[in-house]
Amino acid sequence: MTVLAALLGVALAVCLVALAVTARLLADARREAARLQQTVEAQLQETRNPRAVQAAGRVVNKVVEAATRVRDHGVGRMVLASFEDFGRWATEQRVAIGRMAAEDGTVTILFSDIEGSTALNASLGDARWVRVLAAHDELVETYVEKYRGLIVKTQGDGHMVVFSTPTLALRAAIDIQRAFAARWNHSRELRRTPIRVRIGLHTGTAIERDGDYLGQNVALAARVAAEASGGEIYVTGEIADACPGEFDFASVGAAELKGFDGARELWLVTAGG
Length: 273
What we know:
Layout: H1 2-47, H2 50-99, E1 106-114, H3 117-124, H4 126-146, E2 150-155, E3 158-163, H5 166-181, H6 188-192, E4 197-205, E5 207-209, E6 212-214, H7 216-227, E7 233-236, H8 237-242, E8 247-256, E9 263-272
Parallel strand pairs: 4-7
Antiparallel strand pairs: 1-3, 1-4, 2-3, 5-6, 7-9, 8-9
Helix pairs in contact: 1-2, 3-4, 4-5
């Protein structure tokens, strides 16, 4: 009887903890829904843009979906389903990333970021900067998807993307730069605030672990991007050698890259794709 009472006590404690966590999650969800609603309403007032209307619709749909799941399945099953959805997404993402590399582990890595982003953020203010950043992200993601690339991770205004071949990566990079240069093709935010993106590419073997790519070749691609200026695409000799006749390259000389011994010759992509 004492053992049974102890077990019941433990079960009760677990239930109380679970209810407390669930209540916290629901409170956070309500706050997030309110924040999203305010953001969408502000965009609607400022832009009267069909895309903003669509965003409002998505927010409403998410709130209705969440309420329906609580009503039909209860709070506990709703939280469990959310974790299951996240786990399924994470697994699919890891599988997709693992498939990007060739059998020998070779992958083409692209890094991009916005030139002068810190100063631009300070001049625009956080609210407007977030809108500009969202428009930037949408444009980059459009061409990554077009050329069957995969965004491994983002940080601030930077993207790390992998492609299965140097040709696909270069075509995506060229189209991204052309799109940013063609201001009339952009969203209202990018027409109001034109931005310049710098891109660097390298190809080589990399280590895939837990949905990420690691290794010296990844670091090298990031260093190459840091050497470029806004509107430019820099590549290593490995990229230039892998695409003879497909693209035009101009040598920009040898550069000392942080963390790497010696100087490496870098190339500016001038045409192609």
